[in-house]
Amino acid sequence: MADTALDLALDGPALTAALVDFPSVSGTEEPLTDAIEEALRALPHLTVDRYGNNVVARTNLGRADRVVLAGHIDTVPIADNVPSRLDEDGVLWGCGTSDMKAGVAVQLRIAATVPEPNRDLTFVFYDNEEVAAHLNGLGHVAEAHPEWLAGDFAVLLEPSDGEVEGGCQGTLRMLLRTTGERAHSARSWMGSNAVHAAAPILARLAAYEPRLPVIDGLEYHEGLNAVGITGGVATNVIPDSCTVTVNFRYAPDRTMAEAESFVREYFADCGVAEFVVDDHTGGALPGLSHPAAVEFMKAVGGRARPKFGWTDVARFSALGVPAVNYGPGDALLAHKVDERVAVEKVTHCENRLRTWLTT
Amino acid sequence: MADTALDLALDGPALTAALVDFPSVSGTEEPLTDAIEEALRALPHLTVDRYGNNVVARTNLGRADRVVLAGHIDTVPIADNVPSRLDEDGVLWGCGTSDMKAGVAVQLRIAATVPEPNRDLTFVFYDNEEVAAHLNGLGHVAEAHPEWLAGDFAVLLEPSDGEVEGGCQGTLRMLLRTTGERAHSARSWMGSNAVHAAAPILARLAAYEPRLPVIDGLEYHEGLNAVGITGGVATNVIPDSCTVTVNFRYAPDRTMAEAESFVREYFADCGVAEFVVDDHTGGALPGLSHPAAVEFMKAVGGRARPKFGWTDVARFSALGVPAVNYGPGDALLAHKVDERVAVEKVTHCENRLRTWLTT
């Protein structure tokens, strides 16, 4: 039994405060995982599974569609901003309020208060989202028990300021290396300069025109940039190697293979001696044309906007589950000492999701 | 009195061997300096001065011209190649044979055997040439007692394989910095990429055509190269700064100010935000038109060749003394484990200099 029980009868804002006051910095999530598991096991309409410090709870009503509501339970390190504090303007302050214990509170409230949803529901609570990608609990569950994450549509309750952020762009990091021949710089004509050989690569980068494709009504914005360049042996030596680190952020209508081909072809005649894929994670389609998503957009209102940065929605996308971000927190306040959330947004988000899942 | 006396009655090759067997790695030259000073003070036709571990000896015959013969007495660290070994082909092996105890032996032999030269002579023996420039003994003497180095022409007995190397090129290292504005690479259009901004600099470098001016009959060869490039904050950040380290090697007909102006003007329209002079040492004119130099070339024979790398001749040039390298060692063998010198070259060099200074 968990040291501290979670009371799911609390309203959304009060449950958010209780979660903030239950520290769970990345790597120390076990007690909170225990408390969440215990609270969910007390709900007879859910079956509960656990893998590491990740909990997955499901309804099994035989509905036509299944929707996943997911959120990470860890926070960045506390910066003297716990316990939480509710001010007179209805703003709750504290580490993790926005990112994303308000979202986790909404998940728990829906789990507790919607025993007979119009679509089957899967609730996912996972650890280690704020640290290195290989530690990410959602990734571990996707690897070990992909069937636990199956569904027709997924909502991550990440802070999105109450607006829907659809899909996400992919990100490919590639090293473009040029080569030359070393020589003493006093006799430079005996060698061949690899930094000079990188001139066409930089010129091509500077000339790049981004593609802005519209997918499911969302306008994405690609980007191709050098995020680093390095070359040089010593101050009196002609460099025999230069490496430009290029980051291609691409819209989710490209596959990973297409993204790699694009970069290789874009720099095809720039004298690149070697292309090396340094890091690559694919994008995620917004999936807003699925009936469950159309109903979702109707219930939450507003217009979806594209997500440019890579997020965990891509992990669902990789499993064939379209996913969006939609949560009460404000992403601009995430990781800040003055992190906070307006409590009315927590209630608003909970109500909108309940409407979607019950009417 | 020195622990080990130097016998200047030995012939050139034997004196070279004695000097090699007297270790004097940079920073440990004091005992050898003591021995050289003692040996020179025993010669009544010379006045001897000492500053640190540097010795300067002069004739004072009231000749119309004064010639300086200079050499460093230190070596790179010994690599199990001392004591010296003379093989059956007349090759002397050991650390410092070529660079440049053979040259120092020639200096000492001329000092000992030419009491009435046709030009006044100044012999300079200095320390710490093989280490950081600010430790260089010739530089220290030039700073503290520039009058000790006065003369119409100077010969450094650095290894030049028995050929005359005239003057030397200057070397200017300049940092060319471009600037931009940071942004997350997922939203690169919010920033401005400083690495892309370096494209015109690299293009201009790649297009550089070297100038090959002829000075005193020697063809120099300028060079303009990136010896380094660096830019980048993190793999997901648009870089706000990029620095290209440019090395300009220039012929000695340019002043230092002209060299700096050339670089600034060459990159004038390349969007450089800042030019910083990182290091700069001027070149040295060969001075081969001076009568003493003309006689010198006649005596040593062959054709002079230009020196592309920077050498200590530039320290003489800065004092208004044209200077050349001319010594019995082979520069290609310098600093190598199998360093060696052919003893006939030591004798040849000594004889040629004696001819020049006595006929």
Description:
2 copies of one chain form a homodimer. Chain A has 359 residues and is an alpha+beta fold. Chain A has 2 domains: 231 residues, Zn peptidases (Aminopeptidase); 112 residues, Alpha-Beta Plaits. An 8-stranded mixed β-sheet of chain A has the order 1-2-6-3-7-16-8-15, sandwiched between helices. A 4-stranded antiparallel β-sheet of chain A has the order 12-13-9-14, with helices on one face. In chain A, helix 7 crosses helix 9. The mean pLDDT of chain A is 94. The interface between A and B is large, with 47 and 47 residues. Strand 12 of chain A pairs antiparallel with strand 12 of chain B.
CATH architecture of the largest domain in chain A: 3-Layer(aba) Sandwich
Q: Helix coverage percent of residues of chain A?
A: 25-40%
The chain pair forming the largest interface, with residue counts per chain, is: A-B, 47 and 47 residues
Overall mean pLDDT of chain A stands at 94
Strand content of chain A: 15-25%
The number of strands of chain A is: 17
Measure the end-to-end span of chain A: 36 Å
CATH fold category name of the largest domain in chain A: Aminopeptidase
Order of helices and strands of chain A: HHEEEEEHEHEEEHEEEEHEHEHEEH
Number of helices of chain A: 9
For CATH, the homologous superfamily of the largest domain in chain A is named as Zn peptidases
Strand order of the largest sheet of chain A: 1-2-6-3-7-16-8-15
Oligomer: homodimer
At the first level of CATH, the class of the largest domain in chain A is Alpha Beta
Helix-and-strand structural type of chain A: alpha+beta
Sheet of most strands of chain A: 8 strands, mixed
What is the number of independent domains of chain A? Answer: 2
What overall form of chain A do the CA principal axes indicate? elongated
Please state the CA-atom Rg of chain A, rounded to the nearest Å.
Answer: 24 Å
List low-pLDDT spans of chain A: none
